[in-house]
Each structure stands twice: as C-alpha cells, then as structure tokens.
Model the fold of this input.
Amino acid sequence: MSVLPEGFPPAARIKDLKARVGQEVSLQGWLYNMRSKGKLAFLLVRDGSGICQCVAFSGDVPPEVFERAKSLTQETALVLRGAARADERAPGGVEIGIKDLRVVQQGPEFPIGPKEHGPDFLLGNRHLWLRSRKQAAIARVRHQVKRAIQDFFDEDGFVQVDAPIFTPSACEGTTNLFELDYFDEGKAYLTQSGQLYMEAAAMALGRVYCFGPTFRAERSKTRRHLTEFWMVEPEVAYLDLDGIMALAERFVGRIVAQCLDRCREDFKELERDTSKLEKVVPPFPRVSYDDAAAILKRKGVEFTWGDDFGAPQETAISEEFDRPVMVHRYPADVKAFYMKRDPADPRLALCVDVIAPEGCGEIIGGGQRADDLAYLEGQIAKHNLPKAAFEWYLDLRRYGSVPHGGFGLGLERTTAWLCGIEHIRETIAFPRMLYRIYP
Ligand code: 4AD
Ligand code: MG
Done:
C-alpha cells in the first residue's frame, strides 16, 4: 500500500532525480529550510538521499497550497508532487516545480536551527542532529568505508568470521576492561578485540577477518577515543611482518580510492580537500621505531626511548609524510603480550602501527604473533593473566602452530580522517564516551 495521497505519481529519491527531468514526480521527505519572496516560496526538501530545491509559485498552485508551503516549519514531514526540471543553479542540478503539497506531520520549532550550537547540546540531541547535511554526509562516507573493507577482503579470498562480544579474558591489557557478571561462570568482559579468536579461525580457514563493535573502558577524554568503536581485524596464516605491512598498505589504499570514487558529493558537502587523499597510494613509507625516535629528536619533540607514542609524537612523525606512515618494531614492553619478538633484536616486537596524515593519529595496530608455546606461556605469566582462561589460545601453539599475524583498523578514526573532521564522535551514529551514554 502506498503512503502517497491519491493522484500522486510514484515517489522518486532525490539522488535519482537527474534521470527524471521532464517528468512529474513525488518526493517524500522533510523540510530543511524555507524562504519566500512575493509569489514564490523556495523549499529545501531532504529525503535522506539528498537535498532538493522545490519551488511553489502562487500562479501554479491553489491558494491554500501556496499558504501551506509558506507556513512550514523546519523538519515538517511532507509529501509533494511536481515537475522535475533541470536547473544549473540548483543543488544537484534539478529543481521541482511544486503542483501539490501535503503535510504529513508538523511539530513545534525544531531544536537545531541554522545557528551555531555547542557540542554538548548537539550530542544531547544526537537523534535529531543526525538529520543535518554534514552528519548525513559523514554517515554515508562511513557506509562506503565499510563497503570498501568488505569488498577488499571478499575479493582477496578472506572469510568473515564473527568474534564474540562476551569474553572470558583480556586481549589488549587489563586496565580498560568493561567487566560484568556472567551467571555462575564468574566475571566476563566486553571484547577489546576479536584478534585471539581470529587467530583460531585463521588456523582453520587461512585468511579471515572480523568486523564489529569493540569496547575499551578508556578514561581518556580525547578526540580519538570512544568507549565503543568498530574495528575490522584481518588475520592470516603463514604471514610475517613484511607481509602484514604489504596487506595493510594495499587495504588502506583501496579504502581511500573506493571512497574517493563513491563519495564525491559527500566530500563536497564536508568541504574536504580531496587532493590530500588522492596522494594516498601504496607504497607507504616504512619507518622503524628507532627511525621515528630520530625524527622526534631532530624536531625537538619531547620523548623517551622505550615509551609508546602519544598524539603529539604521532602528529610530529606523520607531518614528515604525505601518506600514511607505517612505524614498525616498537619496544616489546609497551606492546601487548601476544607479539612476536624480533629475532634480530629481542627488545623489539614485530609489530606495526599505521599513522594517518593530517594529525589523525594511529588508525591501524597489528603485527606478527608469538607462535612459540613456551614463550607465550612466559608472557601470560609476566602479564599476570589467568592461564586457565588462555588454555584454548595456547592450544593454537600446540597443534600446527605457524607464523601468522594481522591487524586491527578503527572504523571511526578512518572515517574521521577521510571526512577531514576533528573529532571521531561524529563518525558513529550514537557515540559512547566517558561522559556520554544518552541518547
Ligand atoms: O592498536 P589496537 O589496540 O590493536 C588491537 O586491538 C589488536 N588486537 C588488533 C589486531 O591486531 N587484530 O587497536 C586497533 C585500532 C587502533 O589503531 C585504532 O584505530 C582503533 O583500533 N582504536 C580505537 N578507536 C576508537 N576509540 C578507541 N578507544 C580505540 N582504541 C583503538
Ligand atoms: Mg594500538
């Protein structure tokens, strides 16, 4: 059953209007903005796929339709019928000459107007803020990033395996775990990473990836941290650190290229300087931790050898390059328990972080995994992890252990980088942060 009034032609979506020029169409949407001048009312109507200028001319419509058009408030739900005509000046190149217009529902004044609002107000009204042009553009870019990720792995013969969200143990350190009671089994935790499960799946299927929400009880209130974020984690059997870096650069290059191709309108809406993204083609620079430390020293950035990089160090390093930089072989002591040591220098781990340009920070963390049973048992003890909870993981080193590795890419940080926005909270529909869980 159609929700259109009688006599209205089938509805078109705004993004498809170019192909409907010369025809009469219906639009189903909401009023974004209205201005009137004498015998004309200009309605900007949005329908989720785009925004279209619709013009009511008092000579073309019955008087009550013209009056109705002029009285609409922002975000009134409406359906209209009219002629699609080409117009160079209109956004999207098509304009609708209104013939009839019906109000579906009209409410009081919309809380979010064209004037500037503070972030707290906007975040508290996130359910309504999503309707703004910029937020809708970011949502569409995020969607295309996800599609590019899935296309890439699908074409490369990876199997998507879903990791559990409830886990019996920590993967990325014990300081930022969300803990809960799990019936009679004791404590359980929300997953920090699907990696350990992907290692098991990689031994079964060769190349796998998981893609889903992950949780970190981060007490840090930065523009790069959420407590709930999405991570994609490939894991590959018979792969060493060099292979992992080659996979990472090909992967990131593909995401950027596919989004440049499919998100042109959205990048325009976001006023993104895409020339910076056009440069993001493999190979990416590979810089060892030691080389990165030398860069910091040369630039006079405060830093002690042995520490992990924070935002200031990452930004200083990434400024040296016009594409993402792969920093490899960090000191093992600042990295997770499961990393393989570098045989050439056992102080170092065979790991890699990919740092995005333009101050966006680390978007990928990963590396080669320890594949030796005795070494891993030692690491579990050294990190005070409960061995019983890791017996299944140790089994992977008992039965057919091979060199393997992978990485995790954060979807929100990647989307923020592509969109050129400051804070990752705008890249997820309902961000979860230290001081925010509503709406
Ligand atoms: O470097 P991380 O902690 O790596 C892991 O979790 C590995 N187990 C992944 C693997 O090898 N399979 O996290 C990977 C990425 C980071 O580079 C970042 O993009 C993102 O996840 N990330 C966050 N994004 C938003 N908010 C947070 N609190 C994040 N923590 C990590
Ligand atoms: Mg990391």
Summary: DSSP finds 13 helices and 18 strands in the chain. The mean pLDDT is 96. Residues 126-427 form a domain with the BirA Bifunctional Protein; domain 2 fold (CATH 3.30.930.10). The chain has two domains: 14-105, 126-427.
